[in-house]
Amino acid sequence: MSELSKLARQALLQPQEAMLEREKRKNSLYIGIPKEISFQENRVPLTPLSVALLIENGHEVVLESGAGESANFLDHHYSEQGALIVQNKEEVYKADIIIKIAQPTLAEIDMMRNGQVLLSSQQPSLMHLDHLQALMKKKITALSYEYLRDEGNTLTVVRAMSEIVGATSVLIAAEYLSNVFDGKGLMLGGITGVPPTEMVILGAGTVGEFAARTAIALGAQVKVFDSSVYRLRRLQNNVGSRVFTSVIQPIVLRKAVIGCDVVIGAIRATNGRSPCIIGEDTVAKMKPNSVLIDVSIDQGGCFETSEITNHEKPVFRKYDVIHYCVPNIASRVARTATYALTNIFTPILLDIGEMGGIMNLIWAKPGVRNAIYLYQGHLTNKDIANKFNLTPKDLDLLVVSNH
């Protein structure tokens, strides 16, 4: 009897193993990473070690030659981990899943196949109708990093980039205060017997918090302004040391800005546009060679004198105040930013494979569901729909009808 049961068990196991092998092949993802063509975008979504992890899990990764170069990840770093390196961008766009940083251009959308999955950045304020229509026509399922939330319901990519931008903006201020860039010749912070430099931070969100943390660590005297007492209290608790905080009162704010050495504007937009809270007359009265960094410039900026600059020519002077208004500060530290992003994207890609497709992942994870703005060509994001006066479809209903 025992011989018979052994044989029966073997007979049962064989097809199961074959089925598992087929299942693995069926859930294998084909992931494409194109080289970024948008101006001064130095980040890449996945590091070579993340690619190794994906390949170990049975997925294929194709990478356009030079995609990681600006973040100092070279082609051979990826090929050594099993990625296929191609010279031709069109080859990358044959993949089932395209993962990139910047939103795709029309030329890139033209290369895409019907029914592909696209993971990229997509701010509603920067979306163009012809791009949206081209994606819809190709029945693309698209995810926007700006809406992606984690298990704690935090906007995970936004938060990671905000942490980098907050800390980096203080280091930029330190550069422009020094003699190297014809600044005041001050050291950011202070030493014994010399009064510390004064910094005003507008906005007590993640950028404001990490800017305050870095500035305090360097020894600067920090004042934080925000319209929300809740956000100010949260910043105070998170930073762990007593910081001067104030709600935005024009007279107090004006006095602080005129007297400080550095002002960092990090007020987040509520409806796609940052409020402009520092007028030209206030900037005109600031001390000569003071540094003004407008982190909110990608959403219109919070200083009346701000104008968009870039990494090649990052500053201009107005009223003898040094203005730094580069929208993509995280690209200054592209390698750190890439490590932060790969930690977020790799688990998502692994989950798509594990769960047998993006539809099942959307069904299982509300944070990912929140980031989908196109589902098989149907527009599901209310903000984008409002911008173009379109009617969004209900994503839950679309998923249920396809489930």
Structural account:
The protein has 403 residues and is α/β, with parallel strands linked by helices. The chain has 2 domains: 24-147 and 333-402, 3-Layer(aba) Sandwich (Rossmann fold); 163-327, Rossmann fold (3-Layer(aba) Sandwich), CATH 3.40.50. Helices cover 41% and strands 15% of the residues. It contains 16 helices and 15 strands. It has helices spanning 2-26, 48-56, 75-79, 89-92, 106-111, 129-137, 156-177, 206-218, 229-239, 250-259, 280-284, 334-354, 358-364, 366-369, 382-387, 395-402, and strands spanning 30-33, 60-64, 84-86, 97-99, 117-120, 141-144, 198-202, 221-226, 244-247, 262-265, 291-294, 315-318, 321-324, 372-375, 378-379. The strands form 2 sheets. The chain has an 8-stranded mixed β-sheet with strand order 3-2-1-4-5-6-14-15. It has a 7-stranded mixed β-sheet with strand order 9-8-7-10-11-13-12, sandwiched between helices. Helix 3 (75-79) links the parallel strand 2 (60-64) and strand 3. Helix 7 runs antiparallel to helix 12 (334-354). The longest helix has 25 residues, at 2-26. The radius of gyration is 25 Å and the shape is globular. The relative contact order is 0.12. Residues 7-25 have low confidence and may be disordered.
